[in-house]
Structures are given as structure tokens and as C-alpha cells.
From TrEMBL:
Key word Electron transport present: no
Domain 4Fe-4S Mo/W bis-MGD-type per the UniProt entry, residue ranges: 6-62
Source organism of the structure: Meinhardsimonia xiamenensis
Alphabetized UniProt keyword annotations: 4Fe-4S, Iron, Iron-sulfur, Metal-binding, Molybdenum, Nitrate assimilation, Oxidoreductase
A GO biological process held by the record: cellular respiration
Protein name: Assimilatory nitrate reductase catalytic subunit
Requisite cofactors: Mo-bis(molybdopterin guanine dinucleotide); [4Fe-4S] cluster
Recorded GO MF terms: 4 iron, 4 sulfur cluster binding; metal ion binding; molybdopterin cofactor binding; oxidoreductase activity
Family that this chain belongs to: Belongs to the prokaryotic molybdopterin-containing oxidoreductase family. NasA/NapA/NarB subfamily.
Recorded GO CC terms: membrane; oxidoreductase complex
Length: 695
């Protein structure tokens, strides 16, 4: 197709954190054709089912087309005046901590940067959090605890170069399909072996050498067993351990951990043999690790084993977190989490706060205390401590744990502002003000994928006439609140340059996130920016971290953490005897506001379902394709029964995608209680006690 060699626009898929490059061409009728970008290092031209169907998911159907205030159409000037006036009044009366922003890993880095600057630098609160809290915040906390900063040590090339890849709590085949394809290519080329650690037998197990159907929540116990075996077999790297603090205590705690993993001794031995006997081992982990009340410990249990053996930051070796969303990493980089500052600087560090305040020319010292993390934030809305919340590109009334309570809290909140591309969502129904935003293929900026590669998202479609870029909406409010100079940008390249310049300060503090080498790029260079893995500074460019044994704690050493495994926060009992695990379907994304528009994608799974072992189903009187009522301590759902031998007995699985708009009784987030990891604040979405009965 000649359009793809002449006029195609290079952009990035808006779904998962693999961050695949796409080529976009408009057809004569104003439609879109999408191909994989052969020059993008993440996917080298390949696309999964979701990426390949992108062209079917754009268009004006269901879009929010104009601002709405109090349920009535409004022009932009009066809508923005109203938001600024109400925010200003609430801040003046109740203080800056009475307002909050709840953001999304769908936002571009430039949008995220402006939101973080406005709240932390100018409004004077750290109440900025994001749906990435539900996705990978345990990894952030685990990285910071082990390395002293939130850096992914490895790159996608490590998957190509590994001899053993361990998937922990990751259905890579469905959730990060292009990385799974890379893994399959490595298997074909060099015989890479695969271990899957997952309570469920998923599509990722089909090509695995070993599947370990672990008891939910027992990952720390299993990796403690591995660490104890590493020590017992003399497989530690004593040279590398000179760069690591806490090895002795971590190994002692690992030896003492006798918690049941649900696996046989033979299975555990096979796992330890393969892991210890293979030097090039990459441990990929995802939501099964992160979405847990001990998620941070799980991350550190994995990292402990890599530090003990020195298998980190070298080709084909390392712990590797794969993020759910396209720009979860960009959000981390700008400080879009309530406990982060900007550019991986720390809110609790006075020198970092002072430097950022000076750089932003902030009107007052930056907040010292972390803001409210997602679950706390909506608790505060429910309790009236948060009186105004601005929700951007996410649907918490459908997706937060205890979603019914969140929806009720938003309906009662004094001011709810929602920026979105979609007119009707569970959250939009709770909004006082709706602001129409540009969507994918319309907006302009950057995203960062799971291996630290910054890529451009570029516009190719005009978008609805009245829709606006998120950074521009946020900057307009900043100016209306009185900070004209600080929010004076008129194009995203200016914001990117400011962000890159600020990262130079982080680099000056010795942090890894330093893209100051991009701070001086021209608008044209920004427009043409090719995928670039950070860091990009005078000192270094791209590559891996930590193979040289240099870390970011004050003594320059990494930390192995002494860990004792804990069961999930809520355990099944006679009233609720089953454990509910939640997750994604292969062909849908989040609440289906885009993928739901493609008939082809919806054909894979047309309605919310419940996977259950046939013997459990028979005992309950559930028939295949019948309906099951599932109840938890917080909610109720009705789901279509699927008999699945890959489920452990006593455990069930349901997908997260359906909402009050698409299947009112299929909102599984209403079932999940907001039990959080104490360090990361990430809720436990994989182990909810439920009762099940036929309907
Ligand atoms: Fe998009 Fe992820 Fe699929 Fe790549 S793997 S095409 S980023 S959904």
C-alpha cells in the first residue's frame, strides 16, 4: 500500500505497556488504516488483535462532543470559568487538600506533567493519583525499596536473549501479546524455556515447559524457597553481593518461611533447578504480583533472587515488570503518583522538593506529605474530606474496588469534573462538569513503554470540533487560577522540553531518569522524535541498569529485603467459600470504550463470564452457559458460567471490562474490597472471597 511508504504517520498503540509502534494512514472517506511499524523497536511491525483492530475503534459514535455543566451543554469559556471558580472557592474555604486529581495511564506524558505541576506545585496538595495505582504501584514501591529509585533495569532485548523466562502472575499471551510473540521467537531461535507461575492455567501455559498452579498470594513463599535454595546450593554471586545490603537477613528469613505454596515438592524442585542452573534468566511479572495486599513484598522476593545471583542489568537477565497501560511509565516519570514528586524525585526529600519548587517558580513550598492514594482518595470523597475531584480518562465508578461505594461517593461529592472522550460512562453519570477531550489518533505527545522507550503519539484525525487536548484544558485552569506564566504553553513540545529540563535536576541528584539531552530539541525535532530509550543525557543513553552494581541508596548498594509471606487480606470461609481472581480478556481493553466498538474484538468474548472448575460447578448445580450470581462482602454480579479445567478447585475468574453501561450486573470491581498493600497502596484484586449460586 503506497500510503504506508509516503504519507503514513508514525504513532503508538494506545493499549498495553508494550508500546507498539503503528503506521496510520487516512483513507479518502476520512477513515483510518493501521499497520504495525516495522521500524519500532518494541514490535518490529507486528500487532496483536487489539492493535490490528484500532481502525475499527475510532469515530464519533458515543463521543462526548461539547462541554456540559450541570447536565446542560455549555461553551468552553463558561465551563472552564465554572471549574476554576468552584475549585478556587473550595480551596479557599477548605484548603488545598480538599481537592484531588484522579488521572490515567492513558494520558500522554505532557498531559500528566501539567496535572502534576498544577496540583503539587501550585494548588499545594499532593492529591494526584492515577489508575496506575491499581496496575503497577507495587512495582514502584519494590523498585524503590531494592534499588533506591524506580528504574526498570532491563530491556525487551533481554527477552530475546534469555535462556529461561519465568512469567509470574502474567498471562503474557493475552495481556502483552507482542512480548509473548518475542518470547516465542526466542524459544524458536535459542530454545528459551518458559515457566508460568499462575493459579490459573492460561493461554501463556500452552507453550510453557512448566506451569506452577500456585496458591493465590503464595509468591513470596515460593521465591523465598528459591532464595533459600540459591544459598543452600552455593549459587549466590559473592562478588555482586558486595554491592548488596541485607543478603544474610533475607536468606535467613527465606529459610524460615514455611508457608504452603500449594505446589508439590517435585514442582518446587523443578522450578529451583531450572532457575538456578540457568544464568540467563528473566523473571517477568505483572498484575498477579502487583494487585495484592503483599504486592511490594512479592516484587522484592523476585528481585532478591536476581540480586543474590547478580542476574540483573546484564544481557538476558533481570527482574522485569510489564506495565498494563500505554503510559503508566510516563506517569511514574512525571510524578503522577501521590507519593512521588517529579522525574523520580522523592516527595519526602527536602532537597528534591526545594529544587523542583525553584524550577517551577512555585508560589509556596511543595507539600511534604504524600497525597491520598487511589483507594484512600475515594474513601476521602465518601467521607467528605475531598470536596472536589477532577477525573481524567478513567472510569473509577466502574473500575475501583468497591465500585458501588465509589459511585455513591461521587454522586454525593460537591464538585466532580470529568474529562473524557466518551459521553456515557458510569463516572460521567456522576459528573457536575463534563469536558470533551481529544482521543488517540487525535492528540499529540509522548508515552513511555515498559522498557523505558519514549515514543510519540501523533495526530492523524481531526477529532470532534470542540474536543481539546488535556494539557491545554489543565493549563487553562492553571491560568484561570492565577498562574499565567507557569501554564503559558501553547504546544506540547514546550511541555516536553520543560519536563526534560527538570529531569536534568533529577540526574544531578544521581537518579536514573534523566532525559535532559532532549531538553533543547526544536519543535521539528520533537515532531520527528524516533523511539528513544531513556536515559538521554550527557552521561549516558539507553541501555540497562545495575549490572555494574551501582544503586541509588545513600551507600550506593542495593537492598535485599527480609520477607515473611502473608496470606491475602481476606480468606474464604463458610459464607464465602470461593476465591475470585479478576483480570483481562484477550481482545478487550479496560471498560471497552474503544474495543467495544469493534465487532471483531467483541466476538472473542461477548459478555461477562465466570470461569469455574467443572467439579465445583457440578457441586453448585451450575451448568455451562448458565448464569451464576456471585456475591462478596461489597457487591453482587451476575456472570455467564464457563467450565474451565484450568481453574484450581475453589477458585474462580472473572474479567474486568464490563460496566454499568454495558452489563449492569457484570461490574466485577463491585465485588472487590479495597484491601491494599501497606507500602504501595495497591488494592488486592486477585483474591476476593465470594459466594456463588445458580440463577
Ligand atoms: Fe497494542 Fe499491546 Fe497489542 Fe502492542 S501488544 S499492539 S501495544 S495492545
Amino acid at each position: 500500500d503506497p500510503r504506508f511508504t509516503t504519507t503514513a504517520v508514525r504513532s503508538t498503540c494506545p493499549y498495553c505497556g508494550v508500546g507498539c509502534g503503528v503506521l496510520l494512514a487516512r483513507d479518502d472517506a476520512g477513515g483510518l488504516t493501521v499497520r504495525g511499524d516495522p521500524d519500532h523497536p518494541a514490535n518490529r511491525g507486528a500487532l496483536c488483535s487489539k492493535g490490528a483492530a484500532l481502525a475499527e475503534t475510532v469515530g464519533l459514535g458515543g463521543r462526548l462532543l461539547a462541554p456540559r455543566v450541570g447536565g446542560r451543554a455549555a461553551d468552553w469559556e463558561s465551563a472552564l470559568d465554572h471549574v476554576a471558580w468552584r475549585l478556587g472557592a473550595i480551596i479557599a474555604r477548605h484548603g488545598p487538600d480538599s481537592v484531588a486529581f484522579y488521572l490515567s495511564g492513558q494520558m500522554l506524558t505532557e498531559d500528566y506533567y501539567v496535572a502534576n505541576k498544577l496540583m503539587k506545585g501550585f494548588i499545594g496538595s499532593a492529591n494526584v493519583d492515577t489508575n496506575s495505582r491499581l496496575c503497577m504501584s507495587s512495582t514502584v514501591a519494590g523498585h524503590r525499596r531494592a534499588f533506591g529509585t524506580d528504574t526498570v533495569p532491563g530491556t525487551y532485548e533481554d527477552i530475546d536473549e534469555a535462556d529461561l523466562v519465568v512469567l509470574v502472575g502474567s498471562n503474557l499471551a493475552w495481556c502483552h501479546p507482542i512480548l509473548h510473540r518475542r518470547l516465542m521467537a526466542a524459544r524458536a531461535a535459542r530454545g528459551t524455556r518458559i515457566i508460568v507461575i499462575d493459579p490459573r492455567r492460561t493461554a501463556s501455559c500452552e507453550d510453557a515447559d512448566l506451569h506452577l498452579p500456585i496458591r493465590p498470594g503464595a509468591d513470596v513463599a515460593l521465591f523465598n524457597r528459591l532464595l533459600a535454595e540459591i544459598a543452600a546450593r552455593g549459587a549466590t554471586d559473592t562478588g555482586f553481593l558486595a554491592h548488596v545490603e541485607g543478603a544474610e537477613a533475607a536468606i535467613a528469613a527465606a529459610r524460615a518461611d514455611r508457608a504452603d505454596t500449594g505446589l508439590s515438592e517435585a514442582q518446587i524442585r523443578a522450578f529451583c533447578d531450572m532457575w538456578i542452573d540457568t544464568t540467563r534468566v528473566v523473571t517477568i511479572f505483572s498484575q498477579g504480583v502487583n494487585q495484592s495486599s503483599s504486592g511490594t513484598d512479592k516484587v522484592n522476593a523476585i528481585i532478591n533472587c536476581h540480586l543474590a545471583t547478580g542476574r540483573i542489568g546484564r544481557p538476558g537477565m533481570g527482574p522485569f515488570s510489564v506495565t498494563g497501560q500505554p503510559n503508566a511509565m510516563g506517569g511514574r516519570e512525571v510524578g503522577g503518583l501521590a507519593n512521588m514528586l517529579a522525574c523520580h524525585m522523592a516527595l519526602e526529600n527536602p532537597a528534591h522538593r526545594t529544587a523542583v519548587a525553584r524550577f517551577w517558580n512555585a508560589p509556596a513550598p511543595l507539600p511534604e506529605r504524600p497525597g491520598l492514594k487511589a483507594v484512600e482518595m475515594f474513601d476521602a470523597v465518601a467521607e467528605g474530606r475531598i470536596r472536589a475531584i477532577w477525573i481524567i480518562h478513567t472510569n473509577p465508578a466502574a473500575t475501583m474496588p468497591d465500585a458501588d461505594r465509589v459511585r455513591a461517593a461521587l454522586k454525593a461529592c460537591e464538585l466532580v469534573v470529568v474529562s473524557d472522550i466518551t459521553a456515557q460512562t458510569d463516572t460521567a453519570e456522576c459528573a457536575d462538569v463534563l469536558l470533551p477531550a481529544l482521543g488517540w489518533a487525535e492528540k499529540d505527545g509522548t508515552v513511555t513503554n515498559s522498557d523505558r522507550t519514549i515514543s510519540r503519539q501523533r495526530p492523524v484525525l481531526p477529532g470532534p470540533r470542540l474536543a481539546r487536548a488535556d494539557w491545554a484544558i489543565l493549563a487553562d485552569i492553571g491560568r484561570r487560577l492565577g498562574w499565567r506564566d507557569a501554564f503559558a504553553w501553547d504546544r506540547p513540545a514546550q511541555i516536553f522540553r520543560e519536563h526534560a529540563a527538570l529531569s536534568g535536576i533529577a540526574g544531578g541528584f544521581g537518579l536514573d531518569f534523566d532525559i535532559s539531552g532532549l531538553a533543547g530539541i526544536s519543535d521539528a525535532e520533537y515532531d520527528a522524535l524516533a523511539p528513544t530509550r531513556w536515559p538521554v543525557s550527557a552521561a549516558r543513553r539507553g541501555g540497562r541498569f545495575y549490572g555494574d552494581g551501582r544503586f541509588h541508596h545513600a551507600d550506593g548498594r542495593a537492598r535485599m529485603v527480609a520477607l515473611t509471606s502473608r496470606p491475602p487480606a481476606d480468606m474464604p470461609d463458610a459464607e464465602r467459600p470461593f476465591v475470585l481472581n479478576t483480570g483481562r480478556a484477550r481482545d478487550h481493553w479496560h471498560t471497552m470504550t474503544r474495543t467495544g466498538r469493534s465487532a471483531r474484538l467483541s466476538a472473542h468474548m461477548a459478555e461477562p463470564w465466570l470461569d469455574i472448575h467443572p467439579k465445583d460447578a457440578a457441586r453448585l448445580g451450575l451448568a455451562a452457559a448458565g448464569l451464576a450470581e456471585v456475591t462478596s462482602a461489597t457487591g453482587r454480579a451476575v456472570l455467564r458460567v464457563r467450565l474451565n479445567n484450568g481453574q484450581r478447585r475453589g477458585e474462580v475468574f472473572a474479567p474486568i471490562h464490563w460496566t454499568g453501561q454495558t452489563a449492569p450486573t457484570g461490574r466485577v470491581s463491585a465485588l472487590v474490597a479495597g484491601r491494599c498493600d501497606p507500602l504501595s497502596g495497591q488494592p488486592e484484586s486477585k483474591a476476593t472471597p465470594v459466594a456463588i449460586r445458580p440463577l
